[in-house]
């Protein structure tokens, strides 16, 4: 059977004619829902999604069609020009954009039947689709700006943009333009967000530019090796590759993944721009020296944003990722050993990224619980803030899948599009009332939420009362007097306490526990500052109390979610290896109780089954005794790892508890 490359070289005119006919019959391409100028007024349904997927294709480059055509060994019958040189080859599209929003790309896949060459038109759907004529500025506006990614990061959330696609499809072109535009706009946006916050607390809005502290790092991940793109190096190895320190990527003891990179502070657009240009030039130098390394490495630019007005709030992050080019096995099989290894590693990380993004999209759309295997790989470990379901930071991921416009690349393009299309989900459905659960703020109505908030502020007022009494009592002691003990207040008396805020402004009519749980910490603090009344609390006390209260609310939500997840996992049918391998012992001879065994399975998620299956395969190949030896050894090793993880988590909890200041 003719390969697709052979088909596109020997039957190009016929394929072009079939495509022309198809194009004449199809309806006109649908545009974007909102014109560019009106984007700010209508956020659109994508804004409510946690994962957004976009497709992009670029225009053909000069002579590219001819190069692709003549590069094929089967292009023996290539037409020659008057000078006997290979004639110019007209471009033939492998991709057509039929709708910009929702985005639809149609890939034209060449085939062969007894009657001659054929084209199959396969449709793929995304949230947005950018055709070859679209400029970088519009792509930036419709992705980063329309989804408010900068404000998200400035408000303590995490925004991540990933460029995926075949080598040469335009990932770097898109990401570099996004990076430079972020440098252009971030500081302006910081001023807008800062002004709002300062006005809310009666501060001086001209100080808005000084609220945020920005630090930047730039990491390159080549195969298993991470290095720092901000590290300048003169040293080169035997092959002329710049030598950079290998950076470890692992979780620290409190569960953060913070590789030891140079973290540069930037104070202006110009600083950020200069830094990005420097890091990109290091990447390009490596690329030239190491035979197009850029297509083989992932590059992650992380901008971390600290809000100095709210030092306890989580730091916001913007992570911009230019992923390594996706390669098919056929494209990498002639590489040397090191490149094969890199290629394998890249494909592994891209596959794992796919699992994580899909799980995140599914979880957001269904409000269910899905295991996200972000620990399985360095790339996804670096994206932990996006994938860790235990994180209380709001996050949003956007993946832009790039495809080449040429018919010669259609097979690659269909791979890319089928990788990314499943990330498209419906926006989260509005849900009917959920049954009330006293421990789950997401089920509280307005009255219960106000009651809880009032109780929180009352607790704060009681503490202040106690503290004021302690001070008075110390003064009295110095004067040789003893104060009467502070009388306890009856509930009706507690209701008379001056709380310092108007709770009904923090939780206005119609607002519920779920609504409050969706606010970012700075938004909640801002609300509390706007609700401040009288002089019972200072600005700083309102801020401190607000951060503490929203922390308590998040904690309740998180515990309720974890509880619910465990209930769901327990009620699910247990992963039963017996289905695959016949009757099986539930565990090895070692001591595991059922509950611990189940907990371990929840911890591993789908990896559990994968590891068991891999062990079974290996055991068959090596002719070992499966049930009595290999199954036992495999589960023992997994249980040991799980127990170590559990012990480390417990130890962290104890440490965190010990580090907490004493409740006065
Ligand atoms: N939308 C576009 N408009 C015009 N030219 C483009 C566009 N996208 C990409 N190009 C050009 O196509 C070429 C390949 O693009 P680019 O280097 O961004 O691809 P890539 O996917 O990052 O490749 P690699 O994986 O090898 O790094 C470059 O010359 C780039 O300038």
UniProtKB/TrEMBL annotation:
Record's superkingdom?
Eukaryota
Say yes or no: keyword Coiled coil present: no
Question: Which GO terms label this protein's molecular function in UniProt?
Answer: ATP binding; ATP hydrolysis activity; microtubule binding; microtubule motor activity
Q: Which GO terms describe its biological process?
A: microtubule-based movement
**UniProt binding sites for ATP:** 165-172
**One of the record's GO cellular component terms:** kinesin complex
Q: Which residues form the Kinesin motor domain?
A: 50-426
Does this entry carry the keyword Zinc?
Answer: no
Q: Which InterPro entries match?
A: Kinesin-like_fam (IPR027640), Kinesin_motor_CS (IPR019821), Kinesin_motor_dom (IPR001752), Kinesin_motor_dom_sf (IPR036961), P-loop_NTPase (IPR027417)
Family to which this protein belongs = Belongs to the TRAFAC class myosin-kinesin ATPase superfamily. Kinesin family.
* PANTHER family, sorted: KINESIN-RELATED (PTHR24115)
Protein name, per record: Kinesin-like protein
Species = Mycena metata
């Amino acid at each position: 059977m003719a390969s697709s490359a052979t088909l596109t070289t020997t039957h190009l005119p016929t394929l072009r004619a079939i495509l022309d006919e198809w194009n004449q019959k199809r309806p006109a391409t649908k545009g974007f829902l909102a014109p560019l100028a009106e984007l700010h007024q209508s956020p659109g349904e994508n804004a409510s999604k946690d994962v957004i997927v976009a497709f992009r294709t670029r225009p053909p480059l000069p002579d590219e069609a001819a190069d692709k055509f003549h590069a094929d060994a089967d292009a023996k019958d290539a037409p020659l020009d008057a000078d006997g040189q290979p004639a110019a080859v007209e471009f033939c599209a492998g991709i057509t954009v039929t709708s910009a929003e929702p985005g639809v790309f149609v890939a034209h896949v060449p085939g062969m039947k007894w009657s001659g060459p054929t084209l199959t038109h396969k449709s793929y759907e995304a949230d947005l689709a950018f055709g070859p004529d679209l400029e970088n500025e519009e792509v930036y506006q419709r992705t980063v700006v329309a989804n408010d990614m900068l404000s998200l990061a400035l408000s303590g959330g995490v925004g991540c943009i990933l460029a995926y696609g075949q080598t040469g499809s335009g990932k770097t072109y898109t990401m570099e333009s996004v990076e430079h535009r972020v440098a252009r706009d971030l500081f302006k946006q910081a001023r807008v967000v800062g002004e709002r916050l300062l006005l809310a607390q009666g501060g001086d809005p001209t100080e808005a530019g000084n609220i945020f502290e920005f630090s930047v790092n730039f990491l390159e991940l080549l195969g298993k090796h991470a290095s720092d793109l901000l590290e300048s190096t003169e040293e080169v190895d035997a092959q002329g590759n710049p030598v950079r320190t290998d950076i470890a990527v692992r979780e620290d003891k409190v569960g953060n993944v913070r590789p030891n990179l140079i973290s540069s502070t930037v104070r202006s657009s110009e600083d950020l721009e200069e830094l990005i240009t420097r890091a990109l030039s290091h990447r390009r130098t490596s690329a030239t020296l190491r035979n197009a390394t850029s297509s083989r490495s992932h590059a992650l630019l992380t901008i971390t944003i600290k809000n100095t007005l709210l030092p306890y709030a989580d730091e916001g992050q913007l992570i911009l990722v230019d992923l390594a080019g996706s390669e098919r096995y056929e494209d990498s099989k002639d590489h040397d050993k090191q490149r094969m290894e890199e290629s394998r590693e890249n494909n592994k990380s891209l596959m794992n990224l796919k699992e994580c993004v899909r799980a995140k999209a599914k979880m957001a759309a269904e409000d269910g619980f899905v295991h996200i295997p972000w620990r399985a790989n360095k790339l996804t470990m670096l994206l932990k803030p996006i994938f860790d379901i235990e994180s209380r930071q709001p996050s949003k991921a956007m993946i832009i899948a790039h495809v080449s416009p040429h018919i010669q690349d259609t097979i690659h393009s269909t791979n890319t599009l089928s990788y990314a299309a499943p990330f498209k989900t419906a926006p989260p459905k509005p849900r009917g009332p959920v049954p009330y659960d006293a421990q789950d703020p997401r089920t509280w109505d307005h009255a219960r939420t106000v009651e809880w908030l009032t109780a929180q502020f009352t607790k704060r007022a009681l503490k202040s009362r106690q503290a004021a009494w302690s001070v008075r009592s110390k003064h009295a002691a110095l004067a040789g007097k003893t104060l009467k003990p502070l009388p306890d207040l009856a509930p009706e008396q507690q209701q008379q306490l001056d709380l310092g805020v108007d709770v009904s402004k923090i939780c206005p009519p119609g607002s519920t526990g779920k609504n409050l749980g969706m606010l970012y910490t700075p938004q909640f603090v801002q609300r509390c500052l706007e609700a401040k009344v009288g002089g019972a609390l200072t600005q700083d006390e309102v801020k401190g109390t607000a951060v503490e209260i929203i922390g308590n609310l998040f904690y309740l939500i998180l515990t309720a979610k974890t509880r619910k997840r465990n209930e769901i996992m327990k009620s699910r049918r247990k992963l039963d290896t017996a289905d695959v391998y016949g009757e099986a012992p539930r565990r090895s001879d070692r001591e595991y109780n059922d509950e611990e065994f189940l907990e371990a399975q929840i911890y591993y998620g789908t990896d559990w089954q994968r590891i068991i299956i891999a062990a079974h395969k290996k055991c068959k190949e090596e002719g070992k005794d499966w049930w009595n030896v290999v199954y036992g050894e495999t589960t023992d090793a997994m249980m040991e790892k799980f127990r170590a993880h559990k012990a480390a988590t417990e130890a962290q909890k104890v440490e965190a508890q010990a580090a907490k200041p004493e409740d006065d």
